[in-house]
What does this fold into?
Amino acid sequence: MSHQNILNSVDAALLVVDMQDKLLKAIPDADRVVDNAVRLVETAKVLEMPVLVTLQYADKWGDCTQTLADAIEHQTRVDKMTFSCMGGHGFPEMLEATQRRQVVVCGIEAHVCVNQTAHDLLSKGYRVHVVEDAVSSRTAENKRAGIDKMRASGCVISTTEMAIFELLGDAARAEFKRILPLVK
It folds into this structure.
């Protein structure tokens, strides 16, 4: 595995895509996806990584689910009508301002917004890490197709724990004790 495929908290930003209650109602494993997204957000906060949050058509679909809203606190949410987050008003500029080249992606739906965002990020030279157990779709077939397509296109597919431990990198880091409860 090449080094570029390993996450580094200094070069990574977390992207949370469209985790809204009205959309999550149709996702069979929504509780697990939300829990894993919250674990990623908490890790990002401990490691002082930027967290970017998008909402699909917030006027109709609302804010992100409460558990996630509590975790991200006052984090700006980018409202979008496009499926790709890169089409959200000001999103590309917000991401560029982080000066991070790795993007850890979680959210819904794997075959629509996550997929189109991942491909747009790849086309802009970002290294995209999709956290498989923190993304989902309304059907298992659509999730699998989305994951397979993103993998074939060059995204790194991982799990929540894999991402957390890669971002941490070393059990000797001072942040280890704060992150340990997130993986127990």
Q: What stands out?
A: The chain is about 45% helix and 20% strand. Residues 30-46 form the longest helix (17 residues).
